[in-house]
Amino acid sequence: MKKIIVATAFALIAGVTLMSAAMASPWHDGEQHKTISREFTVQPNTAFSLDSGVGEVQFRYHDKNTVEVQLVIESDDDSWLTDGDIEDIELTVDQTADELALSTNEQEDVKFTWTITMPQMSNVDIDFGVGEISGDIRLTDVDIDLGVGEIDLHLLGGDVGRVEANAGIGDTKIRGINSENTRAMISSQSESHSNGAATVRADVGVGDITLDFDQR
User: Fold this and answer.
1) What is the distance between the alpha carbons of residues 163 and 213, in angstroms, rounded to a whole number?
2) What average pLDDT does the structure give for the chain?
3) Rounded to whole angstroms, how far apart are CA atoms 31 and 79?
4) Does the pTM of the predicted model rise above 0.90?
5) Quick one: 149 exposed, middle or buried, by C-beta within 10 A (0-12, 13-18, 19+)?
6) 197/119 Cα distance (integer angstroms)
7) Which residues on adjacent β-strands are paired with residue 214?
8) Cα separation of 174 and 157, whole Å?
9) Where do the structural domains in the chain lie, given as residue ranges?
10) CA–CA gap between residue 56 and residue 118 (Å, rounded)
11) Which pLDDT does position 17 carry in this prediction?
12) At 77, is the pLDDT very low, low, confident or very high (cuts 50, 70, 90)?
């Protein structure tokens, strides 16, 4: 009987210890996260590209020769990932004199939240799986592919040329410039043609696109 009582006491102590450790851990709520912050010096002729999976990206404009990136990586409550797995996910950077390319090594059940502050680039190329792309981009050549989600961008500047927005299932809008919209069953296409140099194309498989032009 004494042995049983001692064993039970040890089990209770172990249980309390594990519970306390879980409550003290930053992962006790089932959601893991880490933040990566980087800054890159760029030139006016630098092209920018982003390739990411599930999450959100917000663009901000500033008149400096740097691209500032904050990336928050999170796993959801149902994920089997450990904190070690989250720590293994890194921001991959490929930078040359005329290109800055950002990407991540993908894992399931992980959300990437990007905040990117940058000047006018020579062009912007975004390939995103599922999520939302929003914010302000200084007008340049822009090419966006989104699988599922929403694109809501404010494009700053007046050098607008050809603009095209396509949604396989969803809606498209171009604002601030003359445009035409065509709907066919569940798909939508909006386009505009002007005399400027910048070409903007945005495609989403399932979702909505809003391109708002500010030519001031």
Assistant:
1) 10
2) 85
3) 8
4) no
5) buried
6) 18
7) 156
8) 15
9) 1-29, 30-214
10) 17
11) 39
12) low
Tokens at residue 193, please?
A: 């043609």
CA atoms of 144 and 167, how far apart (whole Å): 12
- Could you tell me the CA-to-CA distances from 149 to 32, 96, 110 in Å, in that order? 23, 31, 16
- What gap in Å lies between CA 208 and CA 191, rounded to an integer? 14
Q: What pLDDT is recorded for position 78?
A: 53
Task: Report phi then psi at 22, rounded to 5.
Answer: -65, -40
SS3 71: strand
User: d(Cα 208, Cα 153) in Å, to the nearest integer?
Assistant: 11
Label residue 17 exposed, middle or buried (CB < 10 Å: 0-12, 13-18, 19+).
exposed
DSSP characters over 6-44 = HHHHHHHHHHHHHHHHHHHSTTTTS--EEEEEEEEE--T
pLDDT-derived band at 86, boundaries 50, 70, 90 = confident
Distance in angstroms (rounded) separating the CA atoms of residues 33 and 125: 27
Q: What length is written for the chain?
A: 216
